[in-house]
Design brief:
mainly alpha; 13 helices; globular
Length: 255
């Protein structure tokens, strides 16, 4: 135990001496994973679906605030949507502007949840977002995280419906209806947002209690709550939920 405490102090000391460099490296990695995840999730515009473009954008975002990373990610999504159709790009632009107006009301630390959420979905560990938000931030970070869920499922809808959206026989009204239904009637997405909000609040409340090991209890309680909400919610709403993926995501969140 003593060795672990000494290691912890050494890590803290190293971070305090090199915090600017380490923060830039962390933002670079997060931006790289975000932009690469967007390209892999959509991949409709070949010009930006390029590792060198991703690296350049990640380097730029490494020296800029986290909000810039979110804005660049939104622009990449609009570009991929433009490759599907100008109507899809217009819908995406309006949708993302509304999200940007919403999350810019919060601090950069909270907005990191919006950036981290699509990355967490890419690595199949979405439960880590509300658990980390509850431990490190306040329940308000559930709002940017919820926006991140909306972004992820919007990209998923565009990818899955790209063939129909690109069809010349599909009228403008039909395309807009497909996109709106893909968001508004997506029960899995709304269930995930509900789970994010509830888990963030539970973890925050327990972790702020004064008893011993409150953070560890909050960590475990958040993971269990995520599993219960997703599984029972899926059964109640008749949604096909991959139980193994949910459980593994919760375990990863605890770790």
């Amino acid at each position: 135990m003593t060795a672990l405490l000494e290691l912890k102090q050494k890590i803290k000391g190293f971070y305090s001496e090199h915090d600017v460099l380490l923060l830039s490296v962390g933002k670079f990695l997060l931006a790289f994973l975000l932009f690469q995840g967007i390209n892999s999730s959509m991949g409709t515009m070949e010009k930006i679906d390029n590792i060198f473009v991703v690296l350049i954008l990640a380097i730029v975002c490494a020296i800029l605030p986290v909000n810039t990373m979110a804005v660049v990610g939104c622009l990449l999504i609009v570009a991929h949507c433009y490759a599907v159709g100008i109507e899809v790009a217009g819908f995406a632009l309006v949708f993302l502007i509304l999200l940007i107006i919403l999350f810019l009301r919060f601090t950069a630390q909270d907005n990191a949840a919006l950036v981290f959420t699509p990355v967490a979905f890419t690595f199949k560990i979405p439960a880590a977002v509300p658990v980390l938000g509850g431990l490190l931030r306040t329940p308000t970070c559930a709002v940017p995280a919820g926006c991140g869920v909306l972004l992820y499922y919007f990209m998923k809808v565009v990818k899955e419906k790209s063939t129909v959206l690109q069809g010349k026989e599909t009228e403008l009204v039909q395309k807009l209806k497909i996109l709106l239904d893909g968001i508004m009637k997506n029960q899995e997405m709304w269930l995930t947002i509900l789970a994010f909000v509830v888990v963030t609040v539970i973890v925050y409340m327990i972790s702020r209690c004064s008893f011993d090991y409150s953070w560890r209890v909050a960590n475990g309680a958040g993971a269990v709550s995520y599993i219960v909400i997703m599984v029972l919610g899926g059964m109640f709403l008749n949604i096909h939920i991959h139980m193994a993926s949910v459980i593994l995501s919760a375990i990863a969140a605890v770790l």
